[in-house]
Write a structure and sequence with these properties.
GO terms for molecular function: ATP binding; protein serine/threonine kinase activity. By secondary structure, the chain is of the alpha+beta class. It has 13 helices and eleven strands. It folds into two domains: 80-175, Phosphorylase Kinase, domain 1 (2-Layer Sandwich), CATH 3.30.200.20; 183-406, Transferase(Phosphotransferase), domain 1 (Orthogonal Bundle), CATH 1.10.510.10.
Length: 426
C-alpha cells in the first residue's frame, strides 16, 4: 500500500512532464526557416512582383534614354542653323512677346503646330509658328524651311524674321499679316463679299508672280509642293504672300522632274502624276496654282464636300461649264456679277490650262504671268480635259485618294493648315 501511495503521489508530476514534452514536440514538426505552403506562395508572389517591376523600370529607362537621344540628335542637327543669315531668337523673348503662348494670342493651328501673335519689345508684331510635339513635321522640315526662306526675298513670299531652337522648342518667327490666310475669306460666306473682282484678280497675279520667282527668278529652283489657299497669307493691303516651305524641294538645274515613292501635300491640289505615281516637277506646282485660281473664281473649295454635293470635283465642274458656255454659272455668287467678263474669262481660261491632265500641256509660270497681264493681245491655246481621279491604276490608290478627300478639312480660320500623307525628308 505504501508503494502504491508513492506511485499515486508521483503521477501528477509525470502528467505535467508528459504535457510539457508533448508541447515541446509540436513545434519540431516545422523546423526553423520553413513556414509551410502558404508562406512559400507569398514569397514566390513577392519575387514575381519584384522581377516584373524591375523589367518595367528597365524598359521605361531605355525608352526615356532613346527619346532623349533622338531629341538631342535633332537639336544637334539644328545647331548649325545658328550660322544662318536669319537671327536666332531666345526663348524668353518669345515667351514675353506672346504672353507665354496665351490662348488670346493664338491665331490658328496647322500641320506644323499652333501659330501665335506676338509683339516684340520695340513694338514690332510677329507670328510665331511653334512645332507641336504631335506634329508629323519634324527637324528636317524645320531646317528645310529655315534654309530655304532665308535665301528667298520677294514681295509675294512671306518674310521669315528669325527662328528659335532652345530646349525642346523649335519655332519660326514670321512677319505678322493681320488678314491671315486666303481661305479665311474665300470659303467664308460672311467674308467672301469683301473680295471684290479687282482684289481677286490682284491676288491671282500676285500668287503667280511669287511662284514664277520660285521656279525661275530666284537663286534656287524651288518646287513648293503644297500651294493652297491656306498657305497664301494676306497683308494689311490684301496683297498675297506664299508661305509654308516645309515641303519645298530644291531642284538641280539639269533635272526636270523627280520620281519619289512618298507623296506630301494636300489632295485636291495635287497633280495627278504626283498623287498617283509620285512624280513631281514645276508643272506639279502649276497644277496646284490652277486649282487655286478656280477656287478664287468660284469661292468653292475643291474638296470632299464639293465632290459629295456635285458628284464631281471642282475642276471637272469648271471644265464642263466652260464647254457648255456657262462660265458665268461658275463664278462666285458673292461677286453679284460685278466683274469684267474679259478679265474673269481670261483667268478662268488660264486656270483650265494649268489643270490639264498632261503636264507637258500645262504652261510654265512665266507663260501664266504673261497670259494674265497681256489682255486680249495674246491668243491662248484651248485647254484639254482635266484629270478624272477615278482613273487610278490600283484599288489601293482609289482607297487612299477617297480617304484623303473625305478627310479634307473645312476649317477656314487656320493660318498654315497642312495635310500631309507622308513626310519625305529633304
Amino acid at each position: 500500500m505504501e508503494g502504491l501511495g508513492k506511485r499515486v503521489a508521483r503521477s501528477p508530476y509525470r502528467l505535467r512532464h508528459r504535457r510539457l514534452m508533448d508541447t515541446a514536440a509540436a513545434p519540431a514538426t516545422n523546423p526553423p526557416g520553413h513556414s509551410g505552403p502558404n508562406g512559400m506562395t507569398i514569397m514566390v508572389s513577392i519575387l514575381v512582383v519584384v522581377i516584373v517591376g524591375t523589367l518595367f523600370y528597365c524598359v521605361y529607362c531605355w525608352r526615356w534614354r532613346k527619346r532623349n537621344a533622338v531629341r538631342r540628335a535633332q537639336i544637334e542637327r539644328l545647331r548649325p542653323l545658328s550660322n544662318s543669315d536669319l537671327p536666332l531668337m531666345d526663348l524668353p523673348s518669345i515667351h514675353a512677346a506672346t504672353n507665354s503662348f496665351s490662348k488670346e494670342n493664338k491665331l490658328g493651328e496647322g500641320g506644323f503646330g499652333p501659330v501665335y501673335r506676338g509683339v516684340l519689345g520695340g513694338g514690332a508684331e510677329i507670328a510665331v509658328k511653334r512645332l507641336s510635339a504631335r506634329s508629323r513635321q519634324g527637324a528636317e522640315e524645320f531646317r528645310n524651311e529655315v534654309e530655304l526662306i532665308a535665301k528667298l526675298q520677294h514681295r509675294n513670299l512671306v518674310r521669315l524674321l528669325g527662328f528659335c531652337v532652345e530646349k525642346d522648342e523649335k519655332m519660326l518667327i514670321y512677319e505678322y499679316l493681320p488678314n491671315r490666310s486666303l481661305d479665311a475669306f474665300l470659303f467664308d460666306t460672311r467674308k467672301s463679299c469683301q473680295l471684290d473682282w479687282k482684289m481677286r484678280q490682284s491676288i491671282i497675279l500676285g500668287i503667280a508672280r511669287g511662284m514664277l520667282y520660285l521656279h525661275e527668278d530666284s537663286c534656287l529652283k524651288i518646287i513648293h509642293r503644297d500651294l493652297k489657299a491656306s498657305n497664301v497669307l494676306l497683308d494689311n493691303k490684301m496683297n498675297p504672300k506664299i508661305s509654308d516651305f516645309g515641303m519645298a524641294k530644291i531642284f538641280e538645274e539639269e533635272s526636270n522632274e523627280v520620281n519619289t515613292g512618298r507623296v506630301v501635300g494636300t489632295y485636291g491640289y495635287m497633280a495627278p502624276e504626283y498623287a498617283m505615281e509620285g512624280v513631281f516637277s514645276v508643272k506639279s506646282d502649276v497644277f496646284s496654282f490652277g486649282v487655286l485660281v478656280l477656287e478664287i473664281l468660284s469661292g468653292q473649295r475643291n474638296g470632299a464636300m464639293y465632290l459629295q454635293e456635285h458628284q464631281q470635283t471642282l475642276i471637272q465642274d469648271a471644265w464642263k461649264l466652260w464647254n457648255e458656255d456657262k462660265a458665268a454659272e461658275f463664278m462666285d455668287e458673292s461677286l453679284s456679277g460685278s466683274y469684267s467678263r474679259d478679265e474673269a474669262w481670261r483667268c478662268y481660261h488660264v486656270g483650265l490650262l494649268c489643270v490639264q491632265e498632261n503636264p507637258e500641256l500645262r504652261p510654265t509660270m512665266s507663260n501664266v504671268v504673261l497670259m494674265l497681264i497681256s489682255g486680249d493681245r495674246m491668243q491662248m491655246p484651248m485647254p484639254a480635259a482635266p484629270p478624272l481621279f477615278t482613273k487610278v491604276k490600283t484599288a489601293a490608290s482609289v482607297s487612299e485618294f477617297s480617304l484623303a478627300m473625305k478627310t479634307d478639312t473645312t476649317k477656314t480660320q487656320s493660318v498654315n493648315e497642312v495635310s500631309i500623307s507622308m513626310i519625305e525628308p529633304r
